[in-house]
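User
New here, explain this?
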Amino acid sequence: MFRVSANALEGLIGLASIDSNGTLPGLEPNLEHARSMSLMAHEVVIKLKELGLPESLNDELAHLSTDLGDLWGAQKELAERLEGMLESAGDWHEIGDCLVDLSSSIEHISWHVKSVKRPLNKIARFAYKQGPK
C-alpha cells in the first residue's frame, strides 16, 4: 500500500477515505504497469543507441527514455481512469473520487511533458544533423 499524509491530500482530496494507518484503501503497487513503462523506456534507449547516439547525449537519453516511458504509461492510466468514471454507478462522491484520480493523472502527464522537452529537442537536433536533408 502507498502511505500518504492526510495533510498532503487535504487540498485536493479532502473527502478521500484515508484509514487510520494513513493509507488509501485499494492503492496497491501495479508491478505489471511499472514493468511495461520500464520496458518502453528501455526500448527507446536501445533504438537510439542502435542508431549511433553518442555517449555525450547519455544524460539526455536517460531523461528522454524515462519521460517517454512514463508518458506512455500515464496516457494508458488516464484512459482507464476516464473509462472507469464513465462506467461508474455515478453517485457524486464516486464521481468526485474519479475526478481527483483524473487530476492526478493529468498532473503527472504535465510534469513529464515539461521535463521531456529539453532532452527531446536536443536529441531531435542531433538526429536532423545526422540524416539526409
User: Anything to note?
Assistant: DSSP finds four helices and no strands in the chain. The chain has one domain: 31-130.
